[in-house]
Amino acid sequence: MVSYDVVIVGSGIAGASLAYFLSKDGFKTLVLDVKPFERLGDKPCGDAIGKHHFDELGLEAPAGELLEGYVRGIDVYSPSEKVKYRVMGDGYEVHRVKYTKYLLSEAINKGVEFWGESQGVEPLVKDGYVVGVSVWVKGRGRLEVGSKILVDASGMARAIVRRLDFKWPVREDIDPKDMNIAYREVRKLKKEVEEPEILRIYVSKKVAPGGYWWFFPYSKEGDVVNVGLGVQGGMNYPNPRDLLHEHVISREVFNGSEVVEAGGAAVPTRRPLKTLVWNGIAVTGDAAYAVNPVHGGGKGSAMLASWCISKSVRHALEVGDTSAKSLWEANICFNKRYGAKQAALDIFRLFLQRLSDEDLEYGMSKKIIKEEDLNTVSLKGDLELSVVEKAMRLLAGLSRPSLLFKLRRVAHYMNDVKQLYMNYPEEPEGLAKWYWEVEKLYSRFKEEV
């Protein structure tokens, strides 16, 4: 049986970036993917990544053929589309396939191995540790590959962890209601888009129940857009493709447009996996639910999760201990940098999904939360109580007072869950008690709000 220090199952943005980070240390690393090299990263998504992710991770900004366009901000539209919030922030529309291949190519150049058209079938477990993976390789059949640390970066397939026993905390399954089912098309329009560096998000329960639809121009092209729609899973809502064509593609701007590519995918929209690591195993990207619960963006957070995991893997291999305790720093790293914010935004997401279009229209038209406050919520997961209290004073006597009271409770819960994640347990022994507190907080929130 051939063995490696690290085996990464999946080479989307999460797996490729982890290989990139680990390649600098010379570990014997193998990356597997069911797709051939040329199709790596070919997954339907919005393609946008905030500039702050590249800055934090010390990565060069995408340029040339790796870049589809620049982003200066996002416009968020009310259900009537008469009210618009503009949230400024720099980012990039990346070419998801070329950028993923670039990261992995850089890793391969430093000695990382890649097996395309190879599927991780199930983990190999011995004495409470994951010690390898059974792999089906095209043209070679089924092989067993040993690993000191196995990483599941297989996206929502969760090809490895879903085959572990439920006693493994990394197995934690997802409630379908905590997913968004999305469909998107890349279309070439008949004329260029105005302000192509501004992304557009539209909230409407009628058009996209439990989610939103988006219109993301590729500013390098000017007349090419990524347009898609997501609905909350587990609710028996209509097919997002049907909704997109009925309510969006039927609009005048798409008359005569051509479909460049199309596809759908499920996206996790919830708090992070309770732990990214356990004995001999780590989980990253969509497989770890490392996605923004409100807008569903996951590329930047996937890279951040992989960066945190790479630091822990480095430590574990250097000391010769691949236990959960030795790998635990990945959780501290990720939750302080992103997971705490993600959990707070999950609370905000649950609140938004329960609002009617009338509530959303009222809240945006009265600017209960202003653009600058929404920017703070998006970047930090903070909804300041002072902002809500000010809105309650200004809007006293107006309609929908219950909405304001609910928003105040939401602000409290967002702060409380964020503090829980900022105080993530320092060792695996504290995980069960800590997660019980998280579950208790969520139960109270769902009862009250």
Characterization of this structure:
The chain is of the alpha/beta class. It has 3 domains: 2-47 and 97-173 and 271-327, 3-Layer(bba) Sandwich (FAD/NAD(P)-binding domain), CATH 3.50.50.60; 70-91 and 176-268, D-Amino Acid Oxidase, Chain A, domain 2; 343-448, no CATH class. The protein has 12 helices and 16 strands. Strands 1, 2, 6, 7, 8, 9, 15 and 16 form an 8-stranded mixed beta sheet that branches. β7 (118-126) and β8 (129-137) form a beta hairpin. The protein is globular, with a radius of gyration of 22 Å. The relative contact order is 0.13. Residues 391-398 have low confidence and may be disordered.
List the helices and strands and how they pair.
Layout: E1 2-9, H1 13-22, E2 29-32, E3 48-50, H2 51-57, E4 67-77, E5 84-94, H3 96-109, E6 113-115, E7 118-126, E8 129-137, E9 141-152, E10 179-188, E11 198-202, E12 212-217, E13 224-232, H4 240-247, E14 258-268, E15 277-278, E16 281-283, H5 299-319, H6 324-327, H7 329-353, H8 357-365, H9 371-380, H10 385-394, H11 401-422, H12 431-448
Parallel strand pairs: 1-2, 1-9, 2-6, 4-11, 9-16
Antiparallel strand pairs: 3-5, 4-5, 7-8, 8-9, 10-13, 10-14, 11-12, 12-13, 15-16
Helix pairs in contact: 1-3, 1-5, 2-5, 5-7, 7-11, 10-11, 11-12
